[in-house]
Specification:
Its EC number is 1.1.1.169. This is 2-dehydropantoate 2-reductase. Pfam families: ApbA (PF02558), ApbA_C (PF08546). This protein is an alpha/beta fold. Helix content is 46%, strand content 20%. The chain is built from eleven helices and twelve strands. Strand 3 and strand 4 form a beta hairpin. The longest helix is centred in the middle third of the chain and has 22 residues. The radius of gyration is 18 Å and the shape is globular. The structure holds pantoate. Pantoate binds next to helix 6.
Length: 299
Amino acid sequence: MEIVVFGAGSLGSLIGGVLATEHDVTLVARESHARAIERTGLKLEGALETTVHPEAVTDGHGLAADLAIVTVKSFDTERAAETLATGSFEAVLSLQNGMGNEERLARYLEAPVLAGTATYGALLIEPGTVRCTGLGEIVLGPRNGGTSPVADRVGAAFDASSLETTVSASMPHRLWEKLAVNAGINPITALADIPNGAILEAPARELARACVRETARTARAHDVLLSNRVALESLESVARATAKNTSSMRQDVNAGRRTEIEAINGYVLAKAETVGLETPTNRTLVALLETWERKNASD
Ligand code: PAF
Protein backbone atom coordinates (compact mmCIF):
# COMPACT_ATOMS: atom_id res chain seq x y z
CA MET A 1 0.00 0.00 0.00
CA GLU A 2 1.21 3.56 -0.70
CA ILE A 3 1.02 5.54 2.55
CA VAL A 4 1.71 9.20 3.36
CA VAL A 5 2.30 10.14 7.02
CA PHE A 6 1.46 13.81 7.40
CA GLY A 7 3.23 15.29 10.43
CA ALA A 8 6.07 12.86 11.08
CA GLY A 9 7.10 13.94 14.60
CA SER A 10 7.73 11.27 17.23
CA LEU A 11 4.56 9.14 16.91
CA GLY A 12 4.18 9.68 13.15
CA SER A 13 7.79 8.66 12.53
CA LEU A 14 7.43 5.54 14.68
CA ILE A 15 4.20 4.43 12.99
CA GLY A 16 5.47 5.41 9.52
CA GLY A 17 8.78 3.68 10.18
CA VAL A 18 7.15 0.39 11.19
CA LEU A 19 4.74 0.58 8.22
CA ALA A 20 7.74 1.18 5.92
CA THR A 21 8.94 -2.38 6.66
CA GLU A 22 6.00 -3.60 4.53
CA HIS A 23 4.68 -0.63 2.57
CA ASP A 24 5.72 2.24 0.35
CA VAL A 25 5.81 5.13 2.85
CA THR A 26 6.37 8.88 2.42
CA LEU A 27 6.89 10.97 5.56
CA VAL A 28 6.01 14.67 5.56
CA ALA A 29 8.39 16.04 8.17
CA ARG A 30 10.36 19.05 9.35
CA GLU A 31 13.40 20.02 7.26
CA SER A 32 16.17 18.64 9.53
CA HIS A 33 14.32 15.33 10.14
CA ALA A 34 13.51 14.86 6.43
CA ARG A 35 17.11 15.61 5.43
CA ALA A 36 18.51 13.12 7.96
CA ILE A 37 16.08 10.40 6.75
CA GLU A 38 17.01 11.02 3.11
CA ARG A 39 20.71 10.81 4.02
CA THR A 40 20.90 7.78 6.30
CA GLY A 41 17.38 6.36 6.62
CA LEU A 42 15.03 6.42 9.62
CA LYS A 43 16.46 4.66 12.65
CA LEU A 44 13.93 3.10 15.06
CA GLU A 45 15.28 2.34 18.53
CA GLY A 46 13.81 0.35 21.41
CA ALA A 47 11.30 -2.46 21.11
CA LEU A 48 10.76 -2.02 17.36
CA GLU A 49 14.44 -1.58 16.44
CA THR A 50 15.25 -1.39 12.73
CA THR A 51 16.41 1.08 10.08
CA VAL A 52 14.11 1.82 7.17
CA HIS A 53 14.34 4.03 4.11
CA PRO A 54 11.01 5.77 3.53
CA GLU A 55 10.82 8.81 1.29
CA ALA A 56 10.88 12.03 3.35
CA VAL A 57 9.61 15.40 2.13
CA THR A 58 8.91 18.77 3.75
CA ASP A 59 6.10 19.92 1.45
CA GLY A 60 2.86 17.93 1.68
CA HIS A 61 1.11 19.60 -1.26
CA GLY A 62 -0.07 17.54 -4.25
CA LEU A 63 0.75 14.08 -2.85
CA ALA A 64 -1.17 10.97 -3.95
CA ALA A 65 -1.42 7.65 -2.09
CA ASP A 66 -3.83 4.92 -0.99
CA LEU A 67 -3.79 6.23 2.58
CA ALA A 68 -2.89 9.47 4.35
CA ILE A 69 -2.22 9.12 8.09
CA VAL A 70 -2.53 12.43 9.95
CA THR A 71 -0.36 12.75 13.07
CA VAL A 72 -0.11 16.54 13.44
CA LYS A 73 -1.05 18.26 16.73
CA SER A 74 -4.81 18.82 17.03
CA PHE A 75 -4.44 22.61 16.61
CA ASP A 76 -2.74 22.04 13.20
CA THR A 77 -5.47 19.77 11.79
CA GLU A 78 -7.17 22.46 9.70
CA ARG A 79 -3.89 23.45 8.05
CA ALA A 80 -3.06 19.78 7.39
CA ALA A 81 -6.50 19.24 5.82
CA GLU A 82 -6.06 22.21 3.46
CA THR A 83 -2.69 20.86 2.32
CA LEU A 84 -3.93 17.26 1.92
CA ALA A 85 -6.88 18.55 -0.13
CA THR A 86 -4.39 19.54 -2.88
CA GLY A 87 -3.49 15.84 -3.31
CA SER A 88 -5.41 12.63 -3.81
CA PHE A 89 -6.01 9.76 -1.35
CA GLU A 90 -8.31 6.73 -1.16
CA ALA A 91 -8.62 7.03 2.63
CA VAL A 92 -7.49 9.28 5.47
CA LEU A 93 -6.78 8.12 9.04
CA SER A 94 -6.45 10.46 12.00
CA LEU A 95 -4.08 9.15 14.69
CA GLN A 96 -4.15 12.27 16.83
CA ASN A 97 -4.82 13.22 20.43
CA GLY A 98 -7.95 15.18 21.30
CA MET A 99 -11.40 15.28 19.76
CA GLY A 100 -12.98 16.79 16.65
CA ASN A 101 -10.01 16.05 14.34
CA GLU A 102 -11.93 13.71 12.01
CA GLU A 103 -14.77 16.19 11.48
CA ARG A 104 -12.25 18.92 10.61
CA LEU A 105 -10.49 16.64 8.10
CA ALA A 106 -13.78 15.51 6.55
CA ARG A 107 -14.77 19.14 5.92
CA TYR A 108 -11.89 19.49 3.44
CA LEU A 109 -11.36 15.99 2.08
CA GLU A 110 -13.48 13.79 -0.19
CA ALA A 111 -11.89 10.48 0.84
CA PRO A 112 -13.45 8.58 3.77
CA VAL A 113 -11.92 9.75 7.07
CA LEU A 114 -11.25 7.01 9.61
CA ALA A 115 -10.74 7.60 13.33
CA GLY A 116 -7.86 5.99 15.17
CA THR A 117 -6.09 5.92 18.51
CA ALA A 118 -2.47 4.97 19.20
CA THR A 119 -1.00 4.18 22.60
CA TYR A 120 2.59 3.49 21.52
CA GLY A 121 5.19 5.56 23.35
CA ALA A 122 7.47 7.46 20.96
CA LEU A 123 10.31 9.90 21.48
CA LEU A 124 12.23 11.76 18.78
CA ILE A 125 15.86 11.41 19.89
CA GLU A 126 17.44 13.50 17.11
CA PRO A 127 16.67 14.15 13.43
CA GLY A 128 16.46 10.73 11.75
CA THR A 129 16.10 8.73 15.01
CA VAL A 130 12.93 7.84 16.93
CA ARG A 131 12.69 5.54 19.96
CA CYS A 132 9.74 3.28 20.81
CA THR A 133 9.45 3.85 24.56
CA GLY A 134 6.42 1.63 25.10
CA LEU A 135 4.54 -0.97 23.06
CA GLY A 136 0.88 -0.08 22.71
CA GLU A 137 -1.82 -0.68 20.14
CA ILE A 138 -3.64 0.99 17.28
CA VAL A 139 -7.43 0.94 17.21
CA LEU A 140 -9.10 2.27 14.05
CA GLY A 141 -12.46 2.28 12.32
CA PRO A 142 -15.18 4.40 10.71
CA ARG A 143 -15.38 7.68 12.62
CA ASN A 144 -19.12 7.38 13.29
CA GLY A 145 -18.95 3.72 14.25
CA GLY A 146 -19.99 0.61 12.29
CA THR A 147 -17.90 -1.27 9.75
CA SER A 148 -16.51 -0.42 6.33
CA PRO A 149 -14.38 -2.22 3.73
CA VAL A 150 -11.97 0.77 3.77
CA ALA A 151 -11.38 0.38 7.53
CA ASP A 152 -10.83 -3.37 7.05
CA ARG A 153 -8.29 -2.73 4.25
CA VAL A 154 -6.37 -0.20 6.35
CA GLY A 155 -6.47 -2.56 9.36
CA ALA A 156 -5.06 -5.39 7.22
CA ALA A 157 -2.25 -3.11 5.97
CA PHE A 158 -1.32 -2.21 9.58
CA ASP A 159 -1.52 -5.88 10.59
CA ALA A 160 0.93 -6.82 7.84
CA SER A 161 3.54 -4.79 9.73
CA SER A 162 4.32 -5.44 13.40
CA LEU A 163 1.83 -2.83 14.68
CA GLU A 164 -0.73 -4.37 17.06
CA THR A 165 -3.99 -3.29 15.39
CA THR A 166 -7.70 -3.70 16.10
CA VAL A 167 -10.44 -2.61 13.70
CA SER A 168 -13.28 -1.32 15.85
CA ALA A 169 -16.97 -0.80 15.06
CA SER A 170 -17.31 1.57 18.02
CA MET A 171 -14.80 4.36 17.47
CA PRO A 172 -16.91 7.11 19.13
CA HIS A 173 -16.73 5.09 22.38
CA ARG A 174 -13.04 4.34 21.87
CA LEU A 175 -12.21 8.04 21.19
CA TRP A 176 -13.92 9.10 24.44
CA GLU A 177 -12.07 6.37 26.34
CA LYS A 178 -8.73 7.59 24.94
CA LEU A 179 -9.78 11.19 25.68
CA ALA A 180 -10.35 10.19 29.32
CA VAL A 181 -6.85 8.65 29.46
CA ASN A 182 -5.23 11.73 27.93
CA ALA A 183 -7.28 14.06 30.19
CA GLY A 184 -6.03 12.13 33.23
CA ILE A 185 -2.37 11.72 32.23
CA ASN A 186 -1.28 14.62 30.02
CA PRO A 187 -1.84 17.86 32.01
CA ILE A 188 -0.79 16.38 35.36
CA THR A 189 2.43 14.88 33.99
CA ALA A 190 3.14 18.16 32.17
CA LEU A 191 2.50 20.47 35.14
CA ALA A 192 4.24 18.27 37.73
CA ASP A 193 7.02 17.25 35.29
CA ILE A 194 6.61 13.54 36.09
CA PRO A 195 6.61 10.34 33.95
CA ASN A 196 3.28 8.69 33.14
CA GLY A 197 3.65 6.00 35.84
CA ALA A 198 3.75 8.63 38.60
CA ILE A 199 0.02 9.29 38.18
CA LEU A 200 -0.55 5.86 39.75
CA GLU A 201 0.66 7.21 43.10
CA ALA A 202 -0.95 9.65 45.56
CA PRO A 203 -1.60 12.55 45.39
CA ALA A 204 -1.51 12.65 41.53
CA ARG A 205 -3.65 9.48 41.39
CA GLU A 206 -6.78 11.07 42.87
CA LEU A 207 -6.45 14.09 40.57
CA ALA A 208 -6.08 11.89 37.49
CA ARG A 209 -9.01 9.69 38.53
CA ALA A 210 -11.21 12.75 39.11
CA CYS A 211 -10.43 13.97 35.57
CA VAL A 212 -11.26 10.56 34.15
CA ARG A 213 -14.56 10.29 36.07
CA GLU A 214 -15.61 13.76 34.89
CA THR A 215 -14.75 12.80 31.29
CA ALA A 216 -16.68 9.53 31.43
CA ARG A 217 -19.70 11.33 32.94
CA THR A 218 -19.56 13.91 30.13
CA ALA A 219 -19.36 11.10 27.53
CA ARG A 220 -22.48 9.47 29.03
CA ALA A 221 -24.30 12.80 28.95
CA HIS A 222 -23.61 12.74 25.19
CA ASP A 223 -24.97 9.18 24.77
CA VAL A 224 -21.60 7.42 24.74
CA LEU A 225 -21.87 4.61 27.26
CA LEU A 226 -18.43 4.87 28.84
CA SER A 227 -18.54 3.65 32.45
CA ASN A 228 -16.24 5.09 35.13
CA ARG A 229 -14.86 1.60 35.69
CA VAL A 230 -13.84 1.05 32.06
CA ALA A 231 -12.33 4.56 31.78
CA LEU A 232 -10.40 4.19 35.08
CA GLU A 233 -9.11 0.74 34.09
CA SER A 234 -7.94 2.19 30.80
CA LEU A 235 -6.14 5.03 32.61
CA GLU A 236 -4.32 2.61 34.90
CA SER A 237 -3.36 0.17 32.15
CA VAL A 238 -1.96 2.92 29.85
CA ALA A 239 -0.10 4.53 32.79
CA ARG A 240 1.39 1.14 33.71
CA ALA A 241 2.32 0.24 30.10
CA THR A 242 3.98 3.64 29.56
CA ALA A 243 5.18 4.14 33.16
CA LYS A 244 8.63 5.48 32.28
CA ASN A 245 7.45 7.61 29.36
CA THR A 246 7.18 11.34 29.02
CA SER A 247 3.65 12.18 27.85
CA SER A 248 3.29 14.27 24.70
CA MET A 249 2.09 17.27 26.77
CA ARG A 250 5.05 17.02 29.14
CA GLN A 251 7.34 16.92 26.06
CA ASP A 252 5.57 20.03 24.71
CA VAL A 253 5.86 21.98 27.97
CA ASN A 254 9.51 21.02 28.47
CA ALA A 255 10.29 22.13 24.91
CA GLY A 256 8.34 25.40 25.38
CA ARG A 257 5.78 24.45 22.70
CA ARG A 258 2.03 25.02 22.53
CA THR A 259 0.11 22.08 24.09
CA GLU A 260 -3.06 20.18 23.11
CA ILE A 261 -4.91 21.19 26.30
CA GLU A 262 -7.75 22.79 24.31
CA ALA A 263 -8.55 19.59 22.35
CA ILE A 264 -8.21 17.35 25.43
CA ASN A 265 -9.38 18.77 28.81
CA GLY A 266 -10.74 21.88 27.06
CA TYR A 267 -12.98 19.65 24.94
CA VAL A 268 -14.32 17.88 28.05
CA LEU A 269 -15.08 21.25 29.61
CA ALA A 270 -16.86 22.58 26.52
CA LYS A 271 -18.92 19.39 26.05
CA ALA A 272 -19.85 19.33 29.76
CA GLU A 273 -21.01 22.95 29.60
CA THR A 274 -23.44 22.21 26.74
CA VAL A 275 -25.35 19.83 29.04
CA GLY A 276 -24.95 21.85 32.25
CA LEU A 277 -22.38 19.53 33.89
CA GLU A 278 -19.65 20.78 36.22
CA THR A 279 -16.12 19.41 35.60
CA PRO A 280 -14.05 21.27 38.22
CA THR A 281 -10.86 19.20 37.97
CA ASN A 282 -10.68 19.54 34.20
CA ARG A 283 -11.51 23.25 34.52
CA THR A 284 -8.63 23.83 36.96
CA LEU A 285 -6.11 21.96 34.80
CA VAL A 286 -7.19 23.89 31.68
CA ALA A 287 -6.79 27.19 33.55
CA LEU A 288 -3.31 26.23 34.78
CA LEU A 289 -2.08 25.07 31.37
CA GLU A 290 -3.56 28.11 29.63
CA THR A 291 -1.83 30.35 32.17
CA TRP A 292 1.47 28.59 31.42
CA GLU A 293 0.86 28.91 27.65
CA ARG A 294 0.20 32.64 27.94
CA LYS A 295 3.39 33.18 29.94
CA ASN A 296 5.36 30.95 27.54
CA ALA A 297 4.10 32.86 24.48
CA SER A 298 5.11 36.21 25.99
CA ASP A 299 8.62 35.07 27.08
O1 PAF B 1 -0.25 11.89 24.62
C1 PAF B 1 0.42 10.90 25.00
O2 PAF B 1 1.55 10.99 25.47
C2 PAF B 1 -0.17 9.50 24.79
O3 PAF B 1 -1.40 9.64 24.13
C3 PAF B 1 -0.32 8.66 26.05
C4 PAF B 1 -1.24 7.51 25.76
C5 PAF B 1 -0.83 9.46 27.23
C6 PAF B 1 0.98 7.98 26.42
O4 PAF B 1 2.01 8.83 26.79
